[in-house]
Amino acid sequence: AQSVTQPDIHITVSEGASLELRCNYSYGATPYLFWYVQSPGQGLQLLLKYFSGDTLVQGIKGFEAEFKRSQSSFNLRKPSVHWSDAAEYFCAVGARGGTASKLTFGTGTRLQVTL
Amino acid sequence: NAGVTQTPKFRVLKTGQSMTLLCAQDMNHEYMYWYRQDPGMGLRLIHYSVGEGTTAKGEVPDGYNVSRLKKQNFLLGLESAAPSQTSVYFCASRQLAGAYNEQFFGPGTRLTVL
């Protein structure tokens, strides 16, 4: 069974600073990987996804993530954070070939942005 | 398109009461999912459906039942609510083809069981 670890529960960055949110996964093969963002009181919105090919993927809102097979990681990055990026971020892994393509989510990282 | 909608947005129940949460999607998606979100635990899958008339158990199915009588609707039922079911419930849907296709989420239902 797959699993996801987001080691940082809460991160605070200053507006304009760079951001990196960590995600480590456990899966026997190359997984499908996703980053979702949840603004307060809202549902989850997809930021980006990886399933094959280029290991650096670009997403919406200026976010990118890099798949590193050797480290079983899929860290999310943004070069300059905006106050509107304050939200909770979830990494998720999906198994290839599994029925229903169920996702396993991490416990989330809450991002606070100071002005 | 409305995407994925959930009804109601908020609900307060007393222990032992029953209720049904409704999820509707207008994207003609085959797969639908119910999750619960609790602080520090992320999202956990309750039940899911791979098509009209089919349902299956997820990670935390106990105390819940589901039905998918129409392709566009996925109902989550609590027969006898317990305080442990206080949570935020999210519905999601996905296209059939391509496991890498994203799940689209509804806005959530905040349920409190007293």
Number of helices of chain B: 0
Radius of gyration of chain B: 13 Å
SSE succession of chain B: EEEEEEEEEEE
| Sheet having the most strands of chain A | 6 strands, mixed
Structural class of chain A: mainly beta
Succession of helices and strands of chain A = EEEEEEEEEEEE
- Can you give the helix content of chain A as a percent range? under 10%
Distance between the terminal alpha carbons of chain B, to the nearest Å?
Answer: 36 Å
Sheet bearing the most strands of chain B, described?
7 strands, mixed
How does this structure look, described?
The complex is a heterodimer of chains A (115) and B (114). The termini of chain A are far apart. Chain A is mainly β. In chain A, 0% of the residues lie in helices and 51% in strands. In chain A, the strands form three sheets. In chain A, strands 2, 5, 6, 10, 11 and 12 form a six-stranded mixed β-sheet that branches. The mean pLDDT of chain A is 92. Chain A contains no helices and twelve strands. In chain A, a hairpin with an 8-residue loop joins strand 10 (87-94) and strand 11 (103-105). Chain A has strands at 3-5, 10-14, 19-21, 24-26, 32-38, 44-50, 56-58, 64-68, 73-78, 87-94, 103-105, 109-114. Chain B is mostly beta strands and 114 residues long. Chain B has strands spanning 4-7, 10-13, 19-25, 31-38, 42-49, 56-57, 65-67, 73-78, 87-94, 104-105, 109-113. In chain B, strand 7 (65-67) and strand 8 form a beta hairpin. The radius of gyration of chain B is 13 Å and the shape is globular. The A-B interface holds A 4, 9, 32, 34, 36, 41-46, 49, 51, 90, 94-103, 105-108 and B 4, 31, 33, 40-45, 48, 50, 56, 58, 90, 92, 94, 99-103, 105-108.
